[in-house]
Amino acid sequence: MSNQNLRQDLIQEIKSKIKKESTQSKVFDLLSDQQWHCRSCEGKMIASEQYAGGGGIQGLQRGTQNRPGLVIETKKLNCQQCNKITNWDRWTGEIKESNTAANIPTTLKKRIFEIYSYTDVIEQRKRPAHELVIDHRFPMERWGNAEEKHQVTMSEEAIRKKFQLLKKDSSGNHNLLKSRSCERCIDTGKRGTPLGIRFWYAGDEDWTSPHQRGVEAEQGCIGCGWYDFEAWRNALNDKIANLKLND
């Protein structure tokens, strides 16, 4: 069988595992030619809000429980249509191991909500479950492989180490803000600044871990407010209190 036929077989196999007419399906259709495509003009024609995120490129890169991830390159190029330097994306034609999140069993979800008293960590407001997102502290963009199945008997200590609660309501989605910050960190090596505050409770703005993905990379997240907002806030309050004492 020729390489062209193998490529078409792979494309059809991937398409069969993506929901038809979804944003992700349209993004894959665009990138399946393995050519460079401008995110600003071509991407916006598909879905300006979801093209780069979990519903588009990011989701294709992660894969799912039954579909491998795609190796997608991104770089900045001059776009003659946009008349500016923009982000361009290209599927290399290669696949990789999925790094998707495992489903959290309903029983475990309820325990997580109860441990955190149904309270989002940033605004510290008690909310109904549908306005909360169970956030993995360590962003899946850096996992490197699929998450193992969650045990419903997970200890409270393990839950607090792994998860935090973020809000998702009509006025905003903090989980989405975190995802965008983590994407910028991966692209630029500059860590996040929640609420625009340039403070890190360990380290500074620079990503210093020699590892970009995998379990070893989690060390590079420690100190960023998006990784542990409660620790970040407590450290910031302590710093302010110490400054007042030294006035």
TrEMBL record:
<dbReference type="GO" id="GO:0004519">
    <property type="term" value="F:endonuclease activity"/>
</dbReference>
<keyword id="KW-0378">Hydrolase</keyword>
<protein>
    <submittedName>
        <fullName>Putative restriction endonuclease</fullName>
    </submittedName>
</protein>
<keyword id="KW-0540">Nuclease</keyword>
<keyword id="KW-0255">Endonuclease</keyword>
